[in-house]
Amino acid sequence: MFDGASRQVTKPASTRVAMFGGTYDPVHIGHLRSAVELREALMLDHVHMVPAHVPPHRNDPAISGQSRLEMLRLGIGDTPGLIADDRELSRNGPSYSVDTLACLREAYGDGACLIMAVGHDAFLKLAQWHRPERLFELANLVVIDRPGHTGALPHELVDLIRERMVETPEALMASPAGRVLRMALSTALPISATDIRARCRRGESIRYLVPDAVASYLEVSGAYRE
Ligand SMILES: Nc1ncnc2c1ncn2[C@@H]1O[C@H](COP(=O)(O)OP(=O)(O)OP(=O)(O)O)[C@@H](O)[C@H]1O
Ligand SMILES: O=C(O)c1ccc[n+]([C@@H]2O[C@H](COP(=O)([O-])O)[C@@H](O)[C@H]2O)c1
Predict the structure, then answer these.
(1) Domain ranges in the chain?
(2) Ligand 2 neighbour 140 (Cβ under 6 A)
(3) Could you tell me the superkingdom of the organism this chain comes from (predicted)?
(4) Are 69 and 89 in contact (CB under 8 A)?
(5) DSSP category for residue 167
(6) Fewer CB atoms < 10 Å away: N or C end of the chain?
(7) How many whole angstroms separate alpha carbon 25 and alpha carbon 75?
(8) Residue nearest to atom 4 of ligand 2 (CA)
(9) Averaged pLDDT in 10-residue chunks for the chain of 226 residues
(10) What separation in Å is there between the alpha carbon of 97 and the centre of ligand 2?
């Protein structure tokens, strides 16, 4: 596994971009540190953080897409390279990643190195996603380690990633799509949106689990308290 903290790769000429999608219900510092470390470790131009409108394979979010997007914008603030990307919110139907990646591929061109970043928990279910083979025609995959989410890979997933696993960022970046790299964060954080919503419901503080601006937004809006 690639230890993102310990190595840097040589800055390449071609564009490197990641899509890091999520429900972001709400965004928390586990997401934001992941995006920052991903960008630094792989020297990415941009990380598109894309809130899902209708997340496939899970319950509807607790609050509106616009509120989740607003918190994402507040959380990102002026962080270099991170983009709060609203393209899924303006699309109807399930927010399939394959459609979002196709959009980004069109925008950045065939030569760009396009990455889809997912946490290990999301990765474990990848074989059930919409058109999983097509995902690899459009992008490389980076799997971010997430504390508390380990376990054996399902057989269908092993079949899907066979021949695609690489050990270094250089090997990943050598192809615009189709390869898979596992990445360890130096600040792996056992934080989840489920826990944050539960704390809000119980009237507990969520300070320092989310950026201050997000905590203030949630306090004022009263979201997740019911
Ligand atoms: N603490 C974390 N560290 C690394 N990756 C994370 C972390 N939290 C979420 N992710 C990843 O970020 C992406 C979006 O996650 P999501 O918005 O579902 O947040 P979540 O905390 O997992 O939410 P929930 O608890 O509601 O399932 C997924 O790929 C997920 O694996
Ligand atoms: O495309 C799919 O079929 C698909 C199935 C499950 C999840 N995803 C995407 O994976 C990202 C993380 O999902 P989640 O449910 O962990 O927030 C988010 O961008 C989802 O839209 C995508």
Answers:
(1) 16-190
(2) no
(3) Bacteria
(4) yes
(5) S
(6) C
(7) 12
(8) 129
(9) 65 84 98 98 97 92 96 98 97 96 97 96 96 97 93 94 95 95 95 97 97 97 91
(10) 7
Question: 19: part of which helix (H) or strand (E)?
Answer: strand 16-22
CA distance 156 to 108: 31
- Residue 103 CB: number of other CB atoms within 10 A? 18
Give start and end residues of each alpha helix (H) in the chain. 29-42, 65-76, 97-108, 120-123, 132-138, 155-161, 169-173, 193-201, 212-221
| Res 2: pLDDT | 75
Please tell me whether the peptide bond between 176 and the residue prior to it is cis, using omega within 30 degrees of 0: no
Helices (H) and strands (E) in the chain, counts: 9, 7
This model of the complex carries an ipTM of 0.99
What is the atom index within ligand 2 of the atom nearest the CA of 24?
Answer: 17
pTM of the model: 0.96
The CB of 192 under 6 Å from ligand 2? The reply is: no
Residue carrying structure tokens 């399902």 = 154
Q: Atom of ligand 2 at shortest distance to CA of 21?
A: 19
Output the six-digit token pair for 218. Answer: 């949630």
